[in-house]
Amino acid sequence: MLVLRLHCADRPGIVAAVSACLSNAQCNIEESAQFNDHLSGLFFMRVLFSPVVEGAEKDFASAFAAVADRFGMVWALETLEQPVRTLLMVSKEGHCLNDILYRWSVRHFPVEITAVVSNHEALRKRVEDFGLRFVHLPISPEAKDKQEKKLEALIEETNSELVVLARYMQILSGRFCERFRGRVINIHHSFLPGFKGAKPYHQAYERGVKLIGATAHFATEDLDEGPIIEQETVRITHSDTPEKLKMIGQDSESRVLARAIGLYAERRIFLHGKRTVIL
Question: Is 166 helix (H, G, I), strand (E, B) or coil?
Answer without folding.
Answer: coil
